[in-house]
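Deliverable D2.4 — example input (structure tokens):
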């Protein structure tokens, strides 16, 4: 019965999201149903339904611009999913990526860096060292180090990420220019502006 209720709530939310025109009343009703459901399913550890509910509430909070609340929901979802599925589960890793993105948006770089370093250890420890998620985490770790005024460490991480993007995702993929942007910033912070301009200029992307 609980599973059926969850399916009903999420089907309702999906229907609201697919409307051609936003409907504030239906959107608020979807939020109400999630909040009403959450304490019921959080009491159960046999299934991971609550993590989906927490994730949805995190998305609602982000849409409202309440990033601190969104981070709290995502963190609760991660902690719960980790307890039930284990830290290496790919859905858990994906949930943690949402938390990282929210922390980055709030410039909570110390927290983001801790999450990213943990994620990289998990991914590399489970033969996922070259997955797109891992490469993204490597780039984001470089960005976090840069924002924490650690440009030399950032440079090392970003050079590694740039090579991974080139060799594993594609030599003309747009992500390379994102990494190169951060690399130029890291070099400029070390008074190496000429090197930044010469060595890490943007590449021409595939159309």
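Example output (designed residues):
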């Amino acid at each position: 019965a609980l599973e059926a209720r969850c399916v009903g709530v999420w089907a309702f939310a999906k229907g609201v999201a697919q409307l051609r025109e936003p409907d504030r009343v239906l959107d608020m009703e979807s939020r109400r149903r999630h909040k009403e459901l959450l304490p019921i399913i959080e009491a159960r550890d046999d299934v991971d339904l609550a993590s989906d509910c927490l994730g949805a509430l995190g998305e609602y909070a982000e849409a409202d611009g309440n990033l601190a609340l969104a981070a709290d929901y995502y963190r609760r979802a991660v902690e719960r999913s980790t307890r039930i599925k284990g830290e290496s589960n790919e859905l858990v890793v994906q949930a943690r990526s949402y938390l990282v993105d929210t922390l980055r948006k709030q410039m909570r770089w110390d927290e983001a860096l801790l999450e990213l370093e943990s994620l990289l250890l998990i991914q590399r420890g489970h033969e996922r060292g070259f997955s797109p998620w891992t490469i993204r985490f490597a780039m984001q770790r470089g960005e976090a180090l840069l924002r924490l005024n650690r440009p030399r460490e950032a440079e090392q991480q970003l050079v590694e990420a740039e090579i991974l993007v080139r060799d594993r995702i594609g030599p003309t993929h747009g992500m390379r220019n994102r990494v190169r942007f951060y690399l130029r910033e890291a070099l400029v912070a070390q008074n190496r502006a000429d090197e930044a301009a010469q060595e890490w200029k943007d590449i021409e992307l595939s159309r």
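The mean pLDDT is 91.
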